[in-house]
Amino acid sequence: MPTIHARLRNSRRTVTSLVAVPALVLGLLACLGILFVGGHSVASQPSMPAFIDHEDTEAMEWVRSETPADAEFVVLGDAAEWFPQQTNRTILVGPWGVEWKTPQAYQRQKDSYITLSECDTARCLTDNLQSQPRQPDYLYIPKGEYTVRGQTITQIDKMRLSLERSDRYRIVHENDGVLIVRTVRTN
Q1: Which helix (H) or strand (E) holds 34?
Q2: pLDDT digits over 49-66, tens only?
Q3: CA-to-CA separations, 8 to 11, 14, 18, 58, 177, in angstroms, rounded
Q4: Strands 169-174 and 178-183
Q5: How far apart are CA 55 and CA 63, in angstroms?
Q6: 149: which of 46, 81, 141, 160 fits an S-S bond (Cβ 3.0–4.6 Å)?
Q7: 119 with 125: CB under 8 angstroms?
Q8: What is the pLDDT of the chain when averaged over all its residues?
Q9: H/E element holding 142?
Q10: In the 8-state DSSP scheme, what is residue 67?
Q11: Does pTM top 0.85 for this prediction?
Q12: Which of 105, 107, 106, 129 lies closest to 117 in space, CA to CA?
């Protein structure tokens, strides 16, 4: 009798092992598959810059010390992601944080952000800002190469020249990489 009992006990372990091990392996593979798919979908999206350069840092320090604490900005390019944290100022256009509201609100903000970030003239900025519910006090405009949702854009001197000629904007700070522009309210 003890021999039969021992065999049955071993038999249960064998059955349990035959069920548990494959179930564990399948569960592990499912988890790895989810992680792979999740990582793949994130990796396939244009990325945000992992850094801001010296010109961005200097311009953001200027914003923090020389503009009112309640000043509102539109920031062109991917430096917008860093701007609120670095300056303690509000940005009016950008997809960050809006994704928690509705898909439509997120898409609207993302589209506005991309469209404004791709502007190369003051006229383009004015036309696109008019569709925004709130108007900024300042614009943060990168010079030269910058990214918009990970895609490289080159801002040529055409933007600076058009801002100088415009009665709607005043350049209040500039370095080698950034223009800070105050908007002029018109009636």
Answers
A1: helix 2-43
A2: 556 899 999 999 999 999
A3: 5, 10, 15, 76, 78
A4: antiparallel
A5: 12
A6: 46
A7: yes
A8: 82
A9: strand 138-142
A10: S
A11: no
A12: 129
Q: Is 101 helix (H, G, I), strand (E, B) or coil?
A: coil
Tokens of 170: 């005043």
Instruction: Tell me the C-alpha distance between 13 and 2, whole Å.
Output: 17
Which residue type, as a one-letter code, is found at position 111? D
pLDDT at residue 87 tops 70: yes
- What digits encode the pLDDT tens for the residues 16-50? 555 655 665 566 655 555 555 444 443 444 444 55
Write the CB contacts of 27 (distance below 8 Å, at least 6 apart in sequence): none
DSSP state of 95: S
DSSP state of 53: -
Helices (H) and strands (E) in the chain, counts: 6, 7
Residue in the structure block whose two tokens are 């992992």: 50
What φ, ψ does residue 74 adopt, rounded to 5°? -115, 125
Site of tokens 């006229």: 123
Can you tell me which residue has the tokens 């988890």?
31
Instruction: List the one residue out of 126, 133, 141 whose CA is nearest residue 109.
Output: 133
